Amino acid sequence: xxxxxxxxxxxxxxxxxxxxxxxxxxxxxxxxxxxxxxxxxxxxxxxxxxxxxxxxxxxxxxxxxxxxxxxxxxxxxxxxxxxxxxxxxxxxxxxxxxxxxxxxxxxxxxxxxxxxxxxxxxxxxxxxxxxxxxxxxxxxxxxxxxxxxxxxxxxxxxxxxxxxxxxxxxxxxxxxxxxxxxxxxxxxxxxxxxxxxxxxxxxxxxxxxxxxxxxxxxxxxxxxxxxxxxxxxxxxxxxxxxxxxxxxxxxxxxxxxxxxxxxxxxxxxxxxxxxxxxxxxxxxxxxxxxxxxxxxxxxxxxxxxxxxxxxxxxxxxxxxxxxxxxxxxxxxxxxxxxxxxxxxxxxxxxxxxxxxxxxxxxxxxxxxxxxxxxxxxxxxxxxxxxxxxxxxxxxxxxxx
Length: 400
Fold this sequence. Notes:
Its main location: membrane. It comes from Candidatus Abzuiibacterium crystallinum. This is Dicarboxylate/amino acid:cation symporter. By secondary structure, the protein is an all-alpha fold. It contains 18 helices and no strands. Helix content is 76%, strand content 0%.
């Protein structure tokens, strides 16, 4: 039955129908809609099942496909430069909007229900975890950054090895292809899965909670909208010959999946398939997208910068220009370390607050309203990754 619906409507339209159905069921059922949560949990679990082997095989294959260390350096350099520039622009935009609109003025925050600080860790610990002591433990714990580092090193080793490495290269390519096929099977369940994600959210929190944080929500959504519809298209226009409108229209499936799951990592399989259907080379897609799903978090960086200044305004601790510069740098580094999972940005946010001496107040309320905002910023993150593919390929490659 589900397969027939997807064939009739198309995957993207079927997912959208699932989102609408989830909102209606949550509104009608109220808190009872929590009984639908297992449907969403199964969907997320299926996507997580794919993530690690797909990321590892894709990056290894992507590095090997470059063909030489010189080519790898060129692609890697363009990718990292793009990620740093767009993340910086997103945070700058967020800081400008939050200082102009001042959504925290007049808001009285409570010191209750702040999440435990142990989630945030430290920069030293973050850097120390980049090189895994036990790669199998990193696989088991889904510790994505060490897996990416190991995959890049493994790919470089295959790239510089002699022909004896060919069986391993073939194995990695076959693994990548198998898990892309696996992804198509999982997406047949997506319309049901998103109902289980959306309905409990609406049923538990309703719509009233948004009223007291209306200006804050306006700043966040406005910043995300400007970044997605102005900044990223402008960057793409400057460095790619693809049509921005046609390119964005072809990405409905990853956009809707990102919105429903609020997870860049969970969306990665769909993003990779969409990029290839859109004419992005395997070399670029296999390298840029897995890396972007972990370190390119434009929406998260913008959100963390806005929240830090919002809290400073709410507790009447205005930040100086120098302190906002610290917020800028810390939010960029924290967003790189944020896992591609729902609400991960709120956990790394504690690093940003600590860096400028702000109390972790009001985060209990932010947790309650975070999921809808997280769904929006994850969609922006995924759009940024796809624009990155077009930018890395440059103007020499034609596309849709």
